[in-house]
Amino acid sequence: MKENIAIILAAGQGTRMKSDMPKVLHKICGKSLIQHVLDHCTDASITKKYVVVGHKHEEIRKALEDTVEYVLQEQQLGTGHAIMQAKDILEENLESNIIVLMGDAPLISSHTLDKFIKLHEKNKNSVTVLTATTKSPHGYGRIVKDQGGNLLKIVEQKDATEQEKQIQEINSGVYCFKGKDLVDALSKLTNDNAQGEYYLTDVIEIMKKDHLIAGVYNTCEEDIKAVNSKRELAEADFIMRRRINNKLMDAGVTIIDPNCTYIGADVIIGRDTIIYPGTIIEGDTVIGEKTTIGTNCKIVSSQIGDRVDIQSSTVLESEIMNETKVGPYAYIRPNCTIGERVKIGDFVEVKNSTIGNDTKASHLTYIGDAKVGSGVNLGCGVVFVNYDGKKKHQTIVEDDCFIGCNVNLIAPANIKKGSYIAAGSTITEPVEEDTLAIARCKQINKVGYIKNK
């Protein structure tokens, strides 16, 4: 089997997006348009990926880093011109399949790409064009065939005759070429058209004149949908979101209202987990089985165990273990590890902390830069005072401690196993094991003070 190499076009300005950001970096389902395309390539066993960049190429390079190789198109003179800039790459891969993709068309699935490439090889085509049939072909290149249904050429909207404009089979901008035949055809490509640009579509007609085999693979219209405006961005997001949610539901996840649930492409969720409306789950999040994610939760790049219950809360880049309850209105900030059967209640914030099994912080508590053991009770209004104005410091609360309401633990504090901290205390010194610590002023009642005043 030949090596598969992708050249992804991402040099355009995307003026209709009305944005300072390069079009291909806009996101759907938590991931940039071009990253979706790259991921589909990887899943379809496309081994090498080259991105043709131009407008604001520095931003694209910064976003993708060294995950791909780059080809610079300094002037945007058409799709054919873009591929010409990769001449050296093409000449090094004459025996490979060259797959040309659009960086702003994120909906092409790896399944479609795989079948597309296999058909190309099976039919021994010099070029195979990915097409779709639509009732609204305006703006797309038309697929012109002979009476036998064989591909003759692709005609752009601006260059099409009235008869050709009635054709409903359209070009996706995605092609699979034999490397050598593509190089030969590009050497004959001209810009003799209404736009004065080098169209990659003209390569098909050149190949036909050289008696080479050109074929098509017809897919669904959704697969080829590109993004050229914020409205189309939302439409693509809706389609991708529906695909993701359907896949999860087919695998046994209950999604109460798929239209109001926003789950990223890389998220993994176990069976019998229930996702309520208004939830956003992004990044490389993994959620176990029989977990409940309530309304209006946001979970980003986190690991959630089995039988966890999260209600109306935010969890960022953290781990929550089995049978733990979070929320409502809790805030789990990055770099937290929360053990099993823990209670993180309403208006509790946890940041850069580890919390052991069976510990409870039921409400109105801030836990920052802390190591909290198992079986600890944190009362209402407990504050881990972790910042001295210049640096953050850690507080350690060992197993089986009881921290009363409205306690301030001034870091670096060390509360030994089995200790009690009286309500209203401000702790500045270590507390030994099995000790009751009281750190508050003695109450003084001045009888009649207010009346006399």
TrEMBL record:
**InterPro entries with a match to the protein in the record:** Bifunctional_GlmU, GlmU-like, GlmU_C_LbH, Hexapep, NTP_transferase_dom, Nucleotide-diphossugar_trans, Trimer_LpxA-like_sf
Instruction: From the UniProt entry, list the residue stretches annotated as the region Pyrophosphorylase.
Output: 1-230
Concerning Gene3D superfamilies, the annotation shows: Hexapeptide repeat proteins (2.160.10.10), Spore Coat Polysaccharide Biosynthesis Protein SpsA, Chain A (3.90.550.10)
Pathway(s) annotated for this protein in UniProt:
Nucleotide-sugar biosynthesis; UDP-N-acetyl-alpha-D-glucosamine biosynthesis; UDP-N-acetyl-alpha-D-glucosamine from N-acetyl-alpha-D-glucosamine 1-phosphate: step 1/1; Nucleotide-sugar biosynthesis; UDP-N-acetyl-alpha-D-glucosamine biosynthesis; N-acetyl-alpha-D-glucosamine 1-phosphate from alpha-D-glucosamine 6-phosphate (route II): step 2/2; Bacterial outer membrane biogenesis; LPS lipid A biosynthesis
Signal peptide start and end residues: none
- EC number(s) recorded for this UniProt protein: 2.7.7.23, 2.3.1.157
GO cellular component annotations, sorted alphabetically? cytoplasm; membrane
* Cofactor binding note from Swiss-Prot or TrEMBL: Binds 1 Mg(2+) ion per subunit.
Q: Name one GO biological process term.
A: regulation of cell shape
Give the molecular function GO annotations.
Answer: glucosamine-1-phosphate N-acetyltransferase activity; magnesium ion binding; UDP-N-acetylglucosamine diphosphorylase activity
Identify the stretch(es) annotated as Linker: 231-251
Q: What does this protein do?
A: Catalyzes the last two sequential reactions in the de novo biosynthetic pathway for UDP-N-acetylglucosamine (UDP-GlcNAc). The C-terminal domain catalyzes the transfer of acetyl group from acetyl coenzyme A to glucosamine-1-phosphate (GlcN-1-P) to produce N-acetylglucosamine-1-phosphate (GlcNAc-1-P), which is converted into UDP-GlcNAc by the transfer of uridine 5-monophosphate (from uridine 5-triphosphate), a reaction catalyzed by the N-terminal domain.
Extract the NCBIfam families matched here. Answer: glmU, PRK14354.1
**Family according to the record:** In the C-terminal section; belongs to the transferase hexapeptide repeat family.
Kindly give the HAMAP family that the UniProt entry links to this protein. GlmU
Stored PANTHER family: BIFUNCTIONAL PROTEIN GLMU, NUCLEOTIDYL TRANSFERASE
Question: What is the recorded name of this protein?
Answer: Bifunctional protein GlmU
What lineage, starting at the top, does this entry show?
Bacteria, Bacillati, Bacillota, Clostridia, Eubacteriales
